[in-house]
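User: Let's play a game. I give you a shape written as C-alpha cells, and you guess the letters that built it. Ready? Here's round one.
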C-alpha cells in the first residue's frame, strides 16, 4: 500500500526516522531555499527519486 505525505517537514521526518518508506519525492520546479538543498542532498545520497514538477502537477497529485 502506498501513501502520500506533503510538506518539507513531513518528508524530513520520514527521512530521519524511516527513509525506506520514501520511494519518490516531488518538488516544486524553481523552488530554492536554505531548507531544501540539504534535504535534496540526503535524498540523492540514499537513491530516492526526486522529480521537479510545476504547480499544476503538484496540485493534481495532492487531490484526494
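Assistant: Ready! My guess for every position:
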Amino acid at each position: 500500500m502506498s501513501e502520500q505525505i506533503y510538506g518539507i517537514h513531513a518528508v524530513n521526518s520520514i527521512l530521519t526516522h524511516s527513509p525506506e518508506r520514501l520511494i519518490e519525492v516531488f518538488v516544486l520546479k524553481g523552488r530554492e531555499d536554505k531548507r531544501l538543498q540539504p534535504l535534496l542532498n540526503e535524498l540523492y545520497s540514499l537513491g530516492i527519486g526526486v522529480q521537479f514538477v510545476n504547480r499544476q502537477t503538484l496540485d493534481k497529485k495532492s487531490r484526494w
